[in-house]
UniProtKB/TrEMBL annotation:
UniProt keyword Cell wall biogenesis/degradation, yes or no: no
Domain Multidrug resistance protein MdtA-like beta-barrel: from-to ranges: 172-256
Pfam families named among the record's database cross-references: Beta-barrel_RND (PF25944), BSH_RND (PF25917), HH_MFP_RND (PF25876), YknX_C (PF25989)
Residue ranges, compositional bias (Gly residues): 337-358
Record protein name field: Efflux RND transporter periplasmic adaptor subunit
Region described as Disordered: spans on this chain: 330-372
Predominant location: membrane
Species this protein is from: Gemmatimonas groenlandica
Domain Multidrug resistance protein MdtA-like barrel-sandwich hybrid: 25-164
Superkingdom field: Bacteria
Length: 372
């Protein structure tokens, strides 16, 4: 048999979940104009900055259209200027009765029509300038490029699907995960919905000892009734690029810390139909103590009542014990004089019922530990 000292101290309340990494922002780069691709300025997998040139479409047809519209607009503006001059002269002649009212109205109507034509020409010219600018395709965000779908010489279609490439922002990244409705209610009770909670991330593949932390940034506004879960997202700086979009990770959402929590190894607790209990070593005997089991915490379990901390709890061989059985301790005494504690709070114990009988043991107990 083995024993361990019951611990008392702070115990974080952590909700565990499975998560997946997704980019903080992702953009499918598309062309806004159609034309021949004349230049690819980047390679697949490059790191690009916002505003960096990615592709060049042949600008010559767009430049020719811009020149044509500029000439047309200049002609219409000259015609409008002449029509407005005629309107002013006709207004003076109409006062002296040299032109009819109908002629005057006609000159004003012609000037108004020409003004509308000039305005439309200016709009067309601005669109042509924009199209010419769009022949140079730039990165809308900073990030890492994916696969390039077209090569130099290919015909690019405006807003075609799929786009030319996809850019993913990898610094920071988001961790997408869900928690059950019960855990969500516990989160609301302990931390509310507006607190920036800490999130611990462990990759499922790779270095599982590396500590990666993020901050909870998103809580969905509804429970998914199909799964009974709530979607959450956390932002991770990802300065070393250790996390990659699509990667699966284990997530621990730390809600609060329970101060002065009593914890024992889970194998120390024996569960029966009448409740749960543990065996502690007291005055050389095994003493059975009823406990109220709280939440699990990894390999430990929190006790809501029954122990106060510092006891030596038996974590192995409880199936050979009964309440009051003598326990023969072996090994060094723990600090503070508690027998049965060895290295790391563990010690060896040998025990049995008086007279060598264990017929009084609770046969309905769930066996925890293995007899040595």
């Amino acid at each position: 048999m083995s024993t361990m000292t019951v611990k008392k101290g702070p115990l974080p309340f952590i909700v565990s979940a499975n998560g997946q990494i997704e980019p903080n922002r992702t953009v499918a780069v598309q062309s806004l104009v159609s034309g021949m691709l004349t230049r690819v300025a980047i390679a697949e997998g490059d790191e690009v900055s916002q505003g960096q040139v990615l592709f060049q479409i042949d600008p010559r047809p767009f430049r020719a259209e811009l020149d044509r519209l500029q000439s047309t607009l200049a002609r219409d503006q000259a015609t409008l200027l002449r029509a407005r001059g005629d309107s002013v002269r006709f207004a003076g002649l109409a006062k002296d009765g040299y032109v009819t009212r109908q002629q005057l109205d006609q000159t004003f109507a012609e000037a108004s029509a020409l003004a509308a034509t000039v305005a439309a020409g200016q709009a067309s010219l601005e669109r042509a300038r924009l199209d010419l600018e769009n022949t140079t395709i730039k990165a809308p965000i900073s990030g890492r490029t994916g696969q390039i779908t077209l090569r130099v010489g290919s015909l690019v279609r405006a807003q075609a699907d799929p786009g030319l490439l996809i850019i993913n922002e990898l610094q920071p990244v988001l961790v997408r995960f869900t928690v059950p409705e019960q855990a969500f209610e516990e989160m609301r009770r302990r931390s509310g919905l507006d607190k920036a909670l800490s999130v611990n991330i462990v990759p499922n593949v790779g270095d599982s000892t590396k500590k990666i932390t993020g901050t909870l940034t998103f809580i969905d506004n509804a429970v998914d009734r199909a799964t009974g879960t709530v979607l959450l997202k956390a932002r991770v700086p990802n300065a070393d690029r250790s996390l990659w979009p699509g990667q699966f990770v284990s997530v621990g959402l730390e809600l609060t810390v329970d101060q002065d929590a009593i914890t024992v190894p889970s194998e120390a607790v024996v569960t029966t139909t009448n409740g749960a209990f543990v065996y502690v070593v007291e005055d050389g005997k095994a003493k059975r103590i009823a406990v109220k089991v709280g939440r699990p915490a990894g390999t430990l379990v929190k006790l809501d009542s029954g122990l106060v901390g510092g006891e030596q709890v038996i974590i192995e061989g409880q199936n050979r014990l009964q309440d009051g059985a003598k326990v023969e301790l072996r090994g060094a005494l723990s600090k503070g004089g508690s027998p049965g504690a060895g290295r790391g709070g563990r010690g060896g114990a040998k025990g049995g019922a008086k007279g060598g009988s264990n017929s009084g043991a609770d046969t309905s107990a769930t066996k925890r530990g293995a007899a040595q």
